[in-house]
Amino acid sequence: MSRTALITGASAGLGVEFARQLADRGYALVLVARRGEKLEQVAQDLRQRYPVSVSTIVADLADPAAPAEIYRQLEGVEVSFLINNAGSAGPDLLVDRDWSKQADFLQLMMISAAHLCHLFMPAMIERGFGRVVNVSSMAARFIRAGDTNYGPSKAYMVALVEGLAGSTQGTDVKISALCPGFTHTEFHEAGDLMEMKNSLPDFLWYDARTVVREGLKALEQGRTVFCSGRLYRVLDALTQFGPTRWLLRKTVIDGLTSRRAQARAAVD
Ligand SMILES: NC(=O)c1ccc[n+]([C@@H]2O[C@H](COP(=O)([O-])OP(=O)(O)OC[C@H]3O[C@@H](n4cnc5c(N)ncnc54)[C@H](OP(=O)(O)O)[C@@H]3O)[C@@H](O)[C@H]2O)c1
């Protein structure tokens, strides 16, 4: 029986790329996202290219009931690879006054991932094999003025992985937090961030294939927290060190933040 990978946010971007690279390794796939039609197109394409079974589950991970429903639908399936990848840009915690939007965002970005780890990881540990990638972001590694929700939620993903990694030590269950920098996907379009995207230089951008290839390799190497892209690994090393953290924040990060604010102001 082939091993099964469960991938959230698999209707676009990094999720589709995870699906391709895991299908190429022979994993049967279960793809999760909200847009059923898009998800089915991705599944059809994968079925044509790879000799693996591909099924889909339409679910909104902002709904607290979704992880348990996914688990219920997969009764009897041995999920040995879990990719918590679904995510989006979020509301501003202080500016957006609709708490339900904030709660949906936090449910999607943190609680659904923790819930899926809670549901699927114990069986992996029991069976003696498992792989988990929680997709975080470089936003978890830099403190950015005005980032009140997205970066903090991604920092939780790193902390969650670091905590869980301790519980899987000595087993063949590996877990990694993947921290991509800016990556060409639908993310910025979906989050109304195209002005910001267009204002940033090309060298900051990576393609999804590279990010996923590096992330899967780092997982196998047992890297608990991994920043994809050489540029971001250098920045990360610098920003984890006190004095350069301050200097970088003043020059690069504040610079980027104000360019983003300018781009937003130009739209308004
Ligand atoms: N692109 C970047 O620059 C970048 C950088 C660092 C980290 N990341 C992280 O990478 C992950 C993947 O993003 P991406 O760049 O591939 O963006 P993307 O192309 O916009 O894909 C996001 C995926 O998440 C799904 N999704 C969003 N909200 C959902 C919900 N409520 N329930 C279920 N699925 C949902 C979307 O599907 P539906 O709309 O069909 O539901 C889509 O499949 C995210 O966690 C993001 O935060 C991205």
Number of domains: 1
Judging by the overall fold, what is the CATH architecture? 3-Layer(aba) Sandwich
Rg result: 18 Å
Unreliable segments of 5+ consecutive residues: none
* Mean pLDDT value: 93
Strand proportion, as a percent range, falls in 15-25%
Write the layout of secondary structure elements.
Elements: E1 4-8, H1 13-24, E2 28-33, H2 36-49, E3 54-58, H3 66-73, E4 79-84, H4 99-127, E5 130-135, H5 150-168, E6 173-179, E7 183-184, H6 187-190, H7 194-199, E8 206-207, H8 208-220, E9 225-227, H9 230-239, H10 242-267
Parallel strand pairs: 1-2, 1-4, 2-3, 4-5, 5-6, 6-9, 7-8
Helix pairs in contact: 1-8, 3-4, 4-5
Bound molecules: NADP nicotinamide-adenine-dinucleotide phosphate.
Write a brief structural summary.
53% of the residues lie in helices and 16% in strands. It is built from 10 helices and 9 strands.
